[in-house]
Amino acid sequence: MCLKLNKLEAAYRQLNTAIRLYFMDEDLISVHTLAGASHIILHDLVEDKHPGKSWEKVAAEDNKIDLNEFLRITRRAQNYLKHAKQDPNSVLTLNKTDTEHLLYLNTLNLCALIDKSETLSNEVSVFQSWFTYVYRYQDIEPCLAKCFKDLNDAPKDKQIKLGYQILKELNNNA
Fold it and tell me: Which residues, 6 or more positions from 18, have their beta carbon under 8 angstroms from its beta carbon?
């Protein structure tokens, strides 16, 4: 069997898989590796299609740092996870918050690339809504607020389980 796909399709599939694994509370290293691979492709595609308009550029400006510095910080873990030549004995500290933010950044870049009439995958839709609600980045639609009402002040593991339940229900109804 041969699989033929373009860069956007590859990044989208990596992102969907990373989100599913994240909500299933699977191995964080694998989730971050997939998110990191997706991140590089999506960032490059946005910069190719809309130069200077990537969400990394927006985040770098918001944090008052250079884009290259922002990318160095953002990609520190993913580079650690794929290279050992320079630092074979080093140790990485990785937390879920970093991975969540990377996944969210990926979803934003993905939205900048797809046609506005295209429906987002359940994974991307649920993750964006979940992240927005958990981090209170913006007002959430009232109908979605009902789905996520149990997240208020819940421990992280419960928040993740609820995200998985919503995703599983949507995928079962698809």
Answer: 31, 32, 34, 35, 38, 103, 106
Please count the other Cβ atoms lying within 10 Å of the Cβ belonging to residue 67.
17
**108 in any annotated domain:** yes
Report yes or no on 1 lying in a domain: no
The domain total for the chain is: 1
Helix (H) or strand (E) run with residue 44 in it: helix 28-49
> Looking at the domain assignment, is residue 62 inside a domain?
yes
Q: Is the pLDDT of residue 151 over 80?
A: no
17-28: per-residue pLDDT in tens?
999 999 999 999
State the average pLDDT over residues 61-79. Answer: 84
Q: Which among 91, 99, 85, 155 is positioned nearest to 127, based on CA atoms?
A: 99
pTM to 2 decimal places? 0.88
Is 140 exposed, middle or buried (CB count within 10 Å of its CB: 0-12, 13-18, 19+)? middle
For 54, the domain range is: 7-173
